[in-house]
């Protein structure tokens, strides 16, 4: 595959997770009404259940892909994902929906873990950060268009049709993987699928200070994104009354992160992952602090909310690809297991933190702003631990 084809396919695999969340945001209210859910915050569990399933299963798919290669487990996970999406069309209760969303997340875990592993198989150092940035840029197109697709579906059909679309999309991506993606893990680099081997791989990952601390920092930063996604419909529609304009504004935020990811891909080889991501984390913290202080004095004007949130999310686009690349860089020899442990930490941690932020919604943007500030400070602490208190210092010319 050419480099652009490779990046596009990796982005589509990552997009399976994005579309699973963003396309249904316009339909959360109807899903709740259809299945007898009155409390607005309870509807957020449609997202949380999926993220928890995806996070837990990553611990399984990583070692599995280290043993059997990347392609077969990846196709199996997408198959589980598609079957659960189709089953949700016929679900009779909210609890049943949550159970199937959890199972769907389990299948989707393969796309999260194995995609990162495939990129690490092929690239390392700043090249991996560049490729992951381009993957994230294309991946961010999904949040730009997915809510609008969901809104369009809701105009002409019921919420069940959203899951039919999700199923069809997954099957199309699976077909492309089956026909175009070569196996990237050679036979001689495969690890035995035994308890001893898996635990040894986990120990390698968990005892690497740099990898673990950057993964934990990313977990908290991703928690802010999940917190906004959980409460975005309540904020943009409930507080600011956007109505049918909600998908357009949501798309604008996603577009901001896509621009940041592209910017990172252009700059990372010149300035390095640490200089870019450390500066972005400090910028994220400053923007969150201004936002939190301003929100205490009352409801922010919509233009000010847009400005402060967009400022934070632009920094987010510079943080995510670099933190992931730095966490994976020392662990190329156990890429599948490493990706599973780091993915588990980021997904479960981020989903849990995001759920706490989302459930704190009280009719204002203050809990979200305080949540952003809190996770940015904690993330900065983990980075300082990883770097032994020294920021902006490249470890070698490749990273």
Automatic annotation (TrEMBL):
GO BP term, pick one: xenobiotic detoxification by transmembrane export across the plasma membrane
Keywords: Cell inner membrane, Cell membrane, Membrane, Transmembrane, Transmembrane helix, Transport
Keyword check for Transmembrane: yes
Domain of life: Bacteria
Major facilitator superfamily (MFS) profile domain: residues covered: 6-391
SUPFAM superfamilies: MFS general substrate transporter (SSF103473)
Protein name stated in the entry: Bcr/CflA family efflux transporter
